[in-house]
Amino acid sequence: MSLLPRKISWKTFTLWLACLGVGLTFVSGVVQWVGIDSARDLSKVGFDRLSLYHGTLHSALEKHRYLPFVLSRDEEIRELLSTKDGRGGLILSVNRSLNATNQKAESDVLYVLNSEGTTLAASNWSEERSFVGHNYAFRPYYKDAIEGKEVGFFAVGATTGVPGFFMSHAVVNEADVSGVIVAKVDLRPLQQQWRDGGEHVIVTDQNGVIFLSSRDKWRYRTVSPISETSMAKIRTNRQFAGAGLAPLELKKLTIFGQDVFEIDGERFLVLTRDAGKPGWSMHFLIPFKFIREKQQTSLLIGMVLLVLFLMGGLFIRERRQKLRSAQRAREADRFQAINEMLQIEIDERKRTEEELLKTQADLVQTGKLAALGQMSTAIAHEINQPMAAIRTFTASARLLLGKGKPEQVGQSLEEISFLTERMAKITGELKTFARKAPVEYQMVDLREALGRAITLMQTVCEQDGVIVELRDLGDSVPVRGDIVRLEQVFVNLIRNAADAMHDYNEKRILVTLRNINDHVIILFEDSGTGIEPGIIAQLFDPFFTTKDVGKGVGLGLSISYGIVKDFGGNIRAENLDDGGARFVVEFPCATSLKHQRLKYTV
Hints:
Among the domains are: 345-427, no CATH class; 429-588, Histidine kinase-like ATPase, C-terminal domain (Heat Shock Protein 90). 49% of the residues lie in helices and 19% in strands. The protein contains 14 helices and 18 strands. The chain has helices at 10-62, 66-71, 75-82, 88-105, 140-146, 188-196, 228-237, 289-328, 331-402, 409-427, 429-434, 446-463, 483-500, 556-566, and strands spanning 109-114, 119-122, 153-156, 163-173, 176-185, 200-204, 210-213, 250-255, 258-263, 266-274, 281-287, 442-445, 467-471, 478-481, 508-516, 519-526, 570-575, 581-588. A 6-stranded antiparallel β-sheet has the order 7-6-11-10-9-8. The protein has a 5-stranded antiparallel β-sheet with strand order 2-1-5-4-3. The protein has a 5-stranded mixed β-sheet with strand order 13-15-16-18-17, with helices on one face. Its main location: membrane.
């Protein structure tokens, strides 16, 4: 149903236009109020943050204020400044004392200037950029100390290039100033704290130079142009190590009754307070985008509400017109519309029913084909391995005949005969899954069955790049069972391990044979990623497989589990600590079979 009216009178149009104007005016007023309220709230929060950062700055500056005063009372320093000759040992002692004090107080540098401003001793006396021997009479902190002032001075180090805050105190001997003690505090960690906090803090001096900033690109820029006189004084004091001191692209605005800085096109709500030093000011900048985001949100909400209001009005008007039209509509038209809808629904249901029947028939056919494919794959999986071994032994027999060694062909023919017998037994293995067949127990050598299985799989593994390594006891291992079925178990476990490493570069299967407490244990360990913990308990369930469709039906491990249990053994799966899976097969040893050396090699 369309919400657009079919016909609107001039009076109605004027009324809707007036409502739209009132709504837009209301939304605009709300957006303006949100901006003012947000700016007020941000200012309150900003002043709290500014007070916090002011406290950190004051703490960083004042916690070392005592050092110059205390060191000016040190007897060794006073003696150093009053002695003219033979000061070598005394200078070394003072250097070491200053270094120890500097490390304990966690200041940057402590040093002693004589009355001419030359450094006699310093805590960094042993470093490459030592202050010793340098004259700093041009620095204001030296001049202030000589005049009895303790103002402090921020500058970039003339020797090290490291910025810091310099505090000084005069050393007075008999009413004369014999020297000056200076302590330098590195403020870079403080700026790093501001930067890590993700906020914008700057400190300017009496000339408007930004000498502390959480943004590196703002440092040593100015918030306003510097006069030539002030610039000359800065150059004379070498305060900022030749920095250009270019003005920031800054505009000072007033928005929502608050001071705003526009820096490089980005606006900030700015809060300012005295930084505690003559001429210093601390500024806390809050991105103006926070206010804009709140305004945009309120604008979006207001516009959505306004549109919903207009659409609701149009809907009500259209609804009334529809009701009037429905009252004037003919009964026949209404019945005709209902019949057409019923006919469409009947046709749709018939079409749906036909598609459902066809889908059910397709599903039945698909299930039949899937079952047939799974059975074929399982049988082919078991038969292909003996077939590959027969081809290998046949090729070996041909080579022996070609070399004129017919007496050695018998062994290959014996192996071929054994494999054909095994193939006949394998075709009947699937029947053992449904019902148990009688088992012929006899004394067999487990090591021989294991060796035959590895030999049978050797060609297949080499084609897949899998290395099979056997670690055994070296002697025969007697158990009660059937050698063909045991060989089938071992072939299944080796085949599964090789399939688990299909996508890996390093493919290694380690088969270990152990004899512990009258039990023989065979370990099959691969270098894959292991088995998901949630499916270990289901590995030996019939038709459970993790392979892709068409690559297995989930009968191999189930049949192997039944064979091992029939022979009185046990089989389980587990994950290795360093990756890969391990299958553990355990049988009780039979003592009636004599131990003898086996004559096959793997």
